[in-house]
Write a structure and sequence with these properties.
Radius of gyration of chain B: 14 Å
Strand content of chain A: 35-45%
Number of helices of chain A: 0
Radius of gyration of chain A: 13 Å
Largest sheet of chain B: 7 strands, mixed
Number of strands of chain A: 9
Largest sheet of chain A: 6 strands, mixed
Order of helices and strands of chain A: EEEEEEEEE
Shape of chain B: globular
Strand content of chain B: over 45%
Helix content of chain B: under 10%
Structural class of chain A: mainly beta
Largest interface: A-B, 24 and 20 residues
Structural class of chain B: mainly beta
Distance between the termini of chain B: 39 Å
Oligomer: heterodimer
């Protein structure tokens, strides 16, 4: 199973909104509602930010939102803050009953 | 508060077996509500799901590692473990243990809500 495709990097200024894409196929992202997003700061474990495409776990800021269209899922961060600077990974359930991750996107807050 | 903590050797020689243990606190690995998983991340690279175990003892592994992986439970110690045989330098990574909600009829975790801090394992002679 190939990794999901994410942009290597995105950037934005404080207060702005950014969107990170995650592209797969009809056998993963496009075929199921099980897309998740994780935030990872350097040297730290990943933190769940979004599950089942658009659901936020308790305690995650409303500034984080998820969506999906066809084979591409997206994570949008609004009102960008310095603390949002991190790596972001998407994941999806697959038709092979496995879980595949994206290659990761480095978010820089300018 | 749920906490997971990985432990095990940080250095393994090529062709030998990598062994890690995850100790869970704040929850029971006998719970019917969760899968217990291992995920790894080579330095500077992305995440890779290794496999999971359920309270029943049933396991499910990623096909790319299936022939070399065993995940097991020790309910008396509230721990679960990972064994990866015949390791090479390509298995050098930070290994995370994690909890995933279980849904009736599901066989594969869909997301991970709690993670350990990670354990770096280097494969080198």
């Amino acid at each position: 199973q190939s990794a999901l495709t994410q942009p290597a990097s995105v950037s934005g200024s404080p207060g702005q909104s950014i969107t990170i894409s995650c592209t797969g196929t009809s056998s993963d992202v496009g075929g199921y509602k099980y897309v998740s997003w994780y935030q990872q700061h350097p040297g730290k474990a990943p933190k769940l930010m979004i599950f089942e495409v658009s659901n936020r776990p308790s305690g995650v800021s409303y500034r984080f939102s998820g969506s999906k269209s066809g084979n591409t899922a997206s994570l949008t961060i609004s009102g960008l803050q310095a603390e949002d600077e991190a790596d972001y990974y998407c994941s999806s359930y697959t038709s092979s009953s496995t879980l595949v991750f994206g290659g990761g996107t480095k978010l820089t807050v300018l | 508060q749920v906490q997971l903590q990985e432990s095990g050797p940080g250095l393994v020689k090529p062709s030998l077996t990598l062994s890690l243990t995850c100790t869970v606190s704040g929850d029971s690995i006998s719970s019917s509500s969760y899968f217990w998983s291992w995920i790894r991340q080579p330095t500077g690279k992305g995440l890779e799901w290794i496999g999971r175990i359920y309270t029943s003892g049933s396991t499910h592994y990623d096909p790319s590692l299936k022939s070399r992986v065993t995940i097991s439970l020790d309910t008396s110690k509230n721990q679960f473990s990972l064994k990866l045989t015949s390791v090479t330098a390509a298995d050098t990574a930070v290994y995370y243990c994690a909890r995933a909600p279980y849904f009736y009829g599901s066989g594969t975790p869909t997301h991970f809500d709690y993670w350990g801090q990670g354990a770096l394992v280097t494969v080198s002679s």
